[in-house]
Design goal:
Elements (H helix, E strand, L loop, with lengths): L1 H19 L4 H4 L5 H12 L6 H15 L5 H15 L1 H5 L3 H26 L10 H23 L4
């Protein structure tokens, strides 16, 4: 019973750990947006429990963990999850591969908003390698979907 109540929170914590876990510099640029993928799944599956407010809070935690200016990831995550949650009924009817394309588009939105906000605050310039997480997030979406769906069904989350 205890795990059932905390499954969403635990999956978000695991995603946060995966997001900040050290990786070799060669593969660092390909790191999927784990937090966005997990929040995206829960926003599609249980939009009444995981919504823009949760995305804003988790984005603040991500800002603290990554050392970015407070509100950058929070705003980008909230915006992306808002678009996802506003269209969850339509997106649920798509196949997993069609959902992966939509997740890729929203992940691109997330990364571009993060870049844009950081560009306004500092003096960085856009490099195309900033978009590799979009591709890897699209590729990994079916497995994240399958894993979290299985967790949701086994724990009877609704």
């Amino acid at each position: 019973m205890k795990l059932r109540n905390n499954a969403i929170g635990l999956s978000i914590i695991v995603a946060l750990v995966l997001q900040i876990m050290p990786m070799p510099s060669i593969v660092e640029q390909y790191r999927p947006d784990w937090v966005f993928l997990v929040l995206g799944y829960w926003a599609l599956a249980l939009p009444e429990r995981v919504n823009v407010g949760v995305a804003c809070f988790v984005g603040l935690i991500l800002d603290i963990l990554l050392g970015t200016s407070i509100g950058v990831h929070s705003f980008a995550m909230s915006l992306s999850v808002f678009v996802l949650a506003a269209n969850y009924q339509r997106l649920r009817n798509y196949s997993v591969w069609q959902q992966a394309v939509v997740i890729g588009i929203l992940c691109a939105l997330y990364n571009l908003v993060v870049f844009w906000l950081i560009h306004l605050l500092t003096d960085i310039y856009f490099i195309l390698t900033y978009m590799w997480p979009v591709v890897t997030s699209m590729v990994i979406w079916p497995w994240i979907f399958w894993l979290l769906r299985r967790v949701r069904r086994q724990l009877h989350l609704s």
